[in-house]
Write a structure and sequence with these properties.
Layout (H helix, E strand, L loop, with lengths): L2 H27 L4 H5 L6 H23 L1 H4 L3 H20 L7 H4 L2 H21 L3 H6 L7
Helix pairs in contact: 1-3, 1-7, 3-5, 5-7
Amino acid sequence: MNPRLALAVRIALVAGFVTDAGVGVLCVFAQPLLGPLLGVPVKDPAITAFLGGELIVASVVYVLVFRDLARWGALLWLCALDQTLGIAIPAVQIALGHVPATLQTLGPMPLQVVLVALYVMGARASATSAPDPGVARRQRPEEPS
């Protein structure tokens, strides 16, 4: 992967991690802050806590990929899906009138579009530059007898 693209993807991974981990922690431990900070009303505390746990797990994926882009680059597709759903689901909920269309709910969406683009570019570059692990195993030199 191009070093500039790798740097951009790593920065995007930090943004994705901060977003998912932050919202996840709020959903699990500080639900009363979701309304004022994110503009999203909590209608079911149990479902909100479950969602928070899933977001915390998703944030671990960002850490894995950040630590080793060459090994975990294929997981960038999951990061792209995570952010795509982070755009689509609120947009549908706003269209249905379940969530207000405010700066808090619409504001992150342009950044998320950029994150999706970077994750997809990184995943494609990772797929074309990653060596086949099977080939690496078959090419080991034999030990002299």
